Amino acid sequence: MNKLSSVIFASAISLFVSQTQASPGGDKFVANCSGCHGEDAAGIPGMAPPLKDAPLWQGLGDKRSEYIAGVVTGGMGGTLHTPAGDTEGMVMPPQDFIDTADLVDITAYVLREVNHVPGGPDAAMIDKYKKSPLSHEELLKIRNGGK
Ligand code: HEC
User: Which one is the CATH code of 3-143: 1.20.1560.10, 3.40.1350.10, 1.10.10.10, 1.10.760.10?
Assistant: First the structure.
C-alpha cells in the first residue's frame, strides 16, 4: 500500500468508527427490534410495519417522543395504516423488559438516524410509561394528532 492509499484507508476507518460511535442505538435496534421491523427498519410484510416513515414522524412534531416511548413500553395491538399497508391482526408485545438506557438509545436511533427528525424520549419519560403504560387507544390518539 503506498502512502496516499494508506492515509485514505486510515481516514475511511476513522470515519467508520466515528459513525458507529455516534449510533449506540443502531446495534441495539438490530438486537431487539429488527427481528420484527427488519434490519433497516423497513418493516417485514405480515410481521411488523416500517419504522422508516418520515412523514409520520415529521407530522407528530413534539409529540413524537411521547408516541415512540409509549409504543415501546406498552406495546400495541390494533390496526395501523402505514405506507406498507394495514397492520390488521399484528401485535407488538410491550418491550418494557429492555433497559431504560437502551430504549433511550434505540428510540433516538429510530427518530434521528432512520427518519432524520430531532427529539427522542429521555430516561424519565421511558420510566413514566413503563410504570403506567398507554393503551392502544391513547397511542392511536397521539398518532392521529389528538383525534
Ligand atoms: C414481536 C415483534 C415486534 C418487536 C420485537 C417489536 N415490534 Fe414494534 N411493532 C410490531 C407490530 C406488529 C406493530 C404494529 C402494531 C399495531 O398494528 O398496533 C409495531 C409497531 C411499532 C411502532 C408504531 C409504528 C407506527 O407506524 O405507528 C413503533 C414506533 C415500533 N413498533 C417500534 C419498535 C421498536 C423501537 C422495537 C424494539 C425496541 C420494536 N418495535 C419491537 C412488532 C414488533
Answer: 1.10.760.10
